[in-house]
Amino acid sequence: MRxxxxxxxxxxxxxxxxxxxxxxxxxxxxxxxxxxxxxSVVNLATNAVTANISISAGGLAGLAATPxxxxxxxxxxxxxxxxxxxxxxxxxxxxxxxxSGPVQVAVTPNGLSAYVVNxxxxxxxxxxxxxxQVVATIPVGTKPIGIAVGPGSNKIFVSNLNSNNISVISxxxxxxxxxxxxxxxxxxxxxxPNGKALYVANQFANSVTVCNPSTGHIMSTVTGFTxxxxxxxxxxxxxxxxxxxxxxxxSAVNPTTLQVTATMTIGLLPTSVAVAPTGTxxxxxxxxxxxxxxxxxxxxxxxxxxxxxxxxxxxIAF
Length: 318
Fold this sequence. Notes:
Elements: E1 4-9, E2 13-18, E3 28-33, E4 38-43, E5 48-54, E6 60-65, E7 71-76, E8 81-86, E9 91-97, E10 102-107, E11 113-118, E12 123-128, E13 133-139, E14 144-149, E15 155-160, E16 165-170, E17 175-180, E18 186-191, E19 198-202, E20 207-211, E21 218-223, E22 228-233, E23 240-244, E24 249-254, E25 259-265, E26 270-275, E27 281-286, E28 291-296, E29 301-306, E30 313-317
Antiparallel strand pairs: 1-2, 3-4, 3-30, 4-5, 6-7, 7-8, 8-9, 10-11, 11-12, 12-13, 14-15, 15-16, 16-17, 18-19, 19-20, 20-21, 22-23, 23-24, 24-25, 26-27, 27-28, 28-29
């Protein structure tokens, strides 16, 4: 399955990350509500909220699902912990202490590990999903806020907002093997399914940088955004979506030509964009709009908007 998550960084923006490969058509989307202390369950067949999972801790941020869809890992910023949710019962089964200010989570495609970005302690906690114990803590740059799984799943990319760089983590050794520089407030990231490009939102430069995911070499830079904070790409690699945090819009970009082909108005403060596993719909949360909007990826038009998903909807996972 495909899981993506999003993170809030104070008032600076929100980050989306691709955390797995599609294994089946997940019938639900899960939306974390930062101010509501809940995760909303959205039935993708009926486009209706069917349940709200109560999580006692406040400040819910990024979340990610295991590849089999059985569990969610939800960052709890205010409690310095991660809640593990059973999707069978829609309830919290355990809570795991991590670093300070966890804001983003990525689960590896094999389902064995969850990587948690801790923005205040400048490190990444590695959770063994079999035991739900932290097995490693990896120092990264300053104010880490975004995460993505690299091609082949042997790398984890972490964007460091205040260091203006990306830390590359080996999943084999859980150590930083490289640091890629020359970015400007990197936030959201997405890896092209063909494994040949890593797209990085530069919040401070209003641009998206295209990097070689093997070497970190900057291949191109796309401009014309406004405080970009979240990125998602379709499973076939044909459409890239970038949220403009200060505009209330989402830009559609052709990954081949790197041209903006459409701009859609979503609502106040788009906080996350994520493409459903089928690839036909891109879902966008609007924090201050309390809404979830569906974009048709074939036409880049808005199909529908679900109002009042939760209080300040934030991250999305499938």
